[in-house]
Design goal:
Blueprint: H1 2-18, E1 32-40, H2 44-50, H3 68-74, H4 83-91, H5 100-116, E2 123-132, E3 135-143, E4 149-157, H6 160-168, H7 183-199, E5 210-216, E6 222-229, E7 232-233, E8 240-241, E9 247-255, H8 263-267, E10 270-274, E11 277-281, H9 289-294, H10 306-317, E12 322-331, E13 337-346, E14 350-361, E15 364-375, E16 384-395, E17 406-419, H11 421-426, H12 430-433, E18 435-448, E19 452-468, E20 471-488, H13 490-497, H14 505-509, E21 514-526, E22 538-549, H15 551-559, E23 571-572, E24 575-576, E25 580-592, E26 597-610, E27 660-673, E28 676-688, E29 711-721, E30 726-736, H16 753-756, E31 757-763
Parallel strand pairs: 1-3, 4-6, 9-11, 9-13
Antiparallel strand pairs: 2-3, 5-6, 7-8, 10-11, 12-13, 14-15, 15-16, 16-17, 17-18, 18-19, 19-20, 20-21, 21-22, 22-25, 23-24, 25-26, 26-27, 27-28, 28-29, 29-30, 30-31
Amino acid sequence: MAFVKRYILLIVALMMVVSCSVTKFVPEGESLLNSVKIISLHDANMALKAESYIRQHPNSKFFGIAKVPLHIYSSAGSDTTKWNNRLLKKIGEPPVIYSSELAEQTRYNIEQMLRNDGYLHATVDLEERVVGERRIDAIYYLHERRQYRVKKIALKSDDRNIVDIIRADSSRSLLRRGMPFSVDNLEAERRRLTEMLKEKGYYRFQKDYISFTADTTHHSTDVNLTMNVALARSSDGKRTHPHKCYRINSISYVSGAGMRPDSTTLANCDTMHYDKYKVYYKDPLFVRPRLLTDNTYIENGTVYTQSNVDRTYNAFSQLSAMRYSAMRMVEHPDEPLLDCYIMLEPNKRRTVSLEIEGTNTAGDLGAAVSATFLDKNLFRGSELLSLRLFGAYEAISGLSGYTRDSYIEYGAELSLRLFGGIFSSMLPMQKKLLKSSTQLSLKFNSQERPEFDRKNLSATFSYMWSKSPRSTHKFDILDVSYIYVPWISETFKAEYLDSISNRNSILKYNYENMLITKMGHSYNYNSSYNKAKNMQRMVFALRTNIECSGNLLNGISMLFNGQKNSDNQYTFMNIAYAQYVKGDIDFTTYINFDERNQLVFHAALGIAYPYGNSTILPFEKRYFAGGANSLRGWTVRGLGPGSYNSVDSDIDFINQSGDLKMDCNIELRSRLFWKLHSALFIDAGNIWTIREYREQPGGQFDIKSFHKDIAFSYGLGLRFEFDLFVFRLDAGMKAVNPARRGKERYPFLHPDLSRDFALHFAIGYPF
């Protein structure tokens, strides 16, 4: 009953906000821009394209439906001395006052867009429609008329070398006979040719040297197109000459002396020679010279290429020892030669950071703290050393028969990343093909629970490389984990591990000492460098991973007739080792409607199979469903596998795991006001087991009936986007619960908040 009252009060409050006049703060004689519409009678795609040329947009809507920020602003009073009025105006959005000047500029811009697309006689009409008290709809009507097309293409220039290069590259041209006469295509071809010529050594070439002449005939939509390439101009602009192909004459590095390689700056520096390079430094050189040359993709005596300049910039930007870098080209006065100066500034070498967080799990309070030390240039080779110490404490209530009433976790992680990598040093040309690094890490984790103590010691040796900033590869050459369980509570052991009536083989397997030795490869691709800031219409991200464990040890054990334990498992140093194969794929696409609204699709599939020395997958490698980054109608590890229904919430988290996972999510994100964003989401998926286990009835995957086990949830999320992190609050409701029967299977039709609601706090986006 109390919930119903709060619900009614919330509805009343929202109605009061919405009922406020949105023209309250619109000045006399002005009008509120109610909406903007673009109508094309011939091509709906043109109307969509024209949206990007709108100069004035109406007030924003939550999820494209209601102008809640405007209503919040309008609910404020006129007295700005009152804090509540100032707050409402700060978090709300002021009314957008209709501007006839901006509307006319929009009309003109759309008209130019149509003409640039070959509709040379297109016109756009603007209607200012009054729709209420001081409200106006701006409606743009597009009249495209006939589209002109390219009939002939000619090339004209007095620079014979440039003409030969362009003609040799004609197969890649963006211009074709019969194509629409589009100014955008002409501009794209100018950019393409400029980039191509810069790649062939024409350092001074600019797109302004390329122009087009278009001839049309009377009563025809045919266009005869001529590309004109002008001669290069002298520095004083009085003379012209053929364009020059430049070569790199010398490469020098300047450290800690600013960004300008003038004679005074260089004269105040100490100098040294390394191989074919010269190094100027004002303070002691903060890195080894080999690091500089290994990350330089241009070479003495070679033709200037823009791509190698860009790769050099990118390589230096990834070095942790560098604060920033710049590349300066100095021309020789009489010859087409370039002296390249790479200006360097060192980064702060050592940093320490501290993180503290609080937790509340079903009323049990806890806290966690971690401290991280970074050394960004350990051996003067931009090596990144990281040492992280962490600890956590949480009170645990509701357990009977146990002597402990808390959960303690602590540990340390030490990692070292070496730029260049071992294979780069073995293969001298490797650095010209890709960017690589090697990482070594050691990690220790200790868990002390009322039921058991568990220690995990792991070591990793990995190699990472990339051919572009968008994609990265990681190869785990060796990843070894030793799991040690020194103590198990007698109560826990008697009730779950040794009890004949309640024996759980999955649980027992995961509370024994275990060795995991795996190798694996992962691949990441992101079509956008920065999806949070990117305003492309659509971007996507792809992650894949495959790993296997125990094969080498199993082969050695079989070859030398190795020792087996009582469970018929081969052992290494009296420790059973896990053997399995696992693969994952994760895909996310982001569709940006505008600056405030974004639609996100996410799909993930994972499958792992234990074999050989293992019949059960190690708990650390099993999948789980539910939680802030999965199906948000369930708590963490609260769903599955399949139609399995948990019977012991205190300890059943082991059983609520599987060997196969499918996850699908759709999320509509909308910026509200201030730093507050919101999301509407629908989640679907579940986990399953490959084999049939007695402890997990209904959990095995069946190709014929797995669709009946797919769970659904829906909900609303709030996100606070700060500069350094995103704080997320997601409220999820179960829609279809495969673990239930009858009415309880469809909570969407028969909701029960105490049973079907889950609230999640998290940092960062779920995908």
